[in-house]
Amino acid sequence: MGAFVISKRFDDQYKFVFTSKKGKVIFTSMKYELKFESEEAIEYFKSNIGLAVFEKHRSAGGKYFFRLFLDGAPFALSRKYTTELRVQKGIDEIVKHASDSEILDFSDNDLVFAD
């Protein structure tokens, strides 16, 4: 099972990543102005995974990646992969595990271990 991890960017906007069960980032979302918008986007994605469209691409450097669209709008961009097979494995993991993945919120930037 993977996880959605919410974080706050340096420009005070929010984003989330979907990580594999091994903790590797599979995709990064678009930016959101408010945290609750990112939370709602995750919940909508989890309940409507069947509407997701994955477009596979190859970069100029020869790496593979995919763009994720939901309801025709850009939703996320994947990390770079070395082969097309690995791209497909990333997509398969999303389809299989996204709907039951947990949401972790690290947007407060609080230290987990105090000094």
Automatic annotation (TrEMBL):
SUPFAM superfamilies for this protein: YegP-like
Species the sequence originates in: Flavobacterium aquicola
InterPro entries: YegP-like_sf
Name this protein carries in UniProt: DUF1508 domain-containing protein
